[in-house]
Amino acid sequence: MARSSKALTYPELASAPLSETLKFELMTLIREKLLQSRLTQKELGLQLGITQSRISNVMRYRLQDFSLDFLVDLARQLGQTVSLGVAEGGSTGSLGSLCCSPRDR
After folding, report:
1. Summary mean pLDDT of the chain
2. Which residues contact 17 (CB under 8 A, 6 or more apart)?
3. Where are the beta strands (DSSP E) in 33-90?
4. Cα–Cα distance between 39 and 42 in angstroms, integer?
5. CA-closest candidate to residue 78, choices 97, 52, 102, 53
6. Which of 39, 75, 85, 94 could be disulfide-bonded to 43 (CB atoms 3.0-4.6 Å)?
C-alpha cells in the first residue's frame, strides 16, 4: 500500500489519534529550534546525524514519516527534556499531554 504524501493540517489534528497530535507538538518544537539555529538543512542534518531530506520533512510537518520515539530523540539532541503525562480524560475521553523544556546543563 502506498503511503500518502499529504501532511496533516492543523484542523485535521482535532480528529487525529493522540500519537499524531503529540508528534505535531514535538515537530513544532523541533522546527522552532531548527529555525533558531540559522543553519542550512544540510548542516543541521550533519550535526544531528540525519539526512537533509529528513530535516526537510520535519520542516514540512510530514508526521507520517516519523515515529514518536524518533521525534523525542531528536528533541533531546536539540537540548530539550521531553515528558509525557497520561491521565484520565475529560468529557472527550482524551488522554495524554506533552511537556518539553530546555534541558538543564
Report:
1. 79
2. none
3. 80-85
4. 8
5. 102
6. 39
Report the C-alpha gap between 11 and 33 in whole angstroms.
23
Distances from the Cα of 7 to the Cα of 58, 62, 80, 96, angstroms: 10, 5, 25, 22
CA distance readout (Å), 14 to 11, 18, 46: 6, 9, 34
Joined grid coordinates for residue 39: 543553519
Around Cβ 50, how many Cβ atoms within 10 Å? 16
Segment 94-102 mean pLDDT: 56
Start-to-end CA distance of the chain, whole Å, equals 45
- Closest-CA residue to 100 (of 30, 48, 34, 37): 30
Q: Is the pLDDT of residue 76 over 60?
A: yes
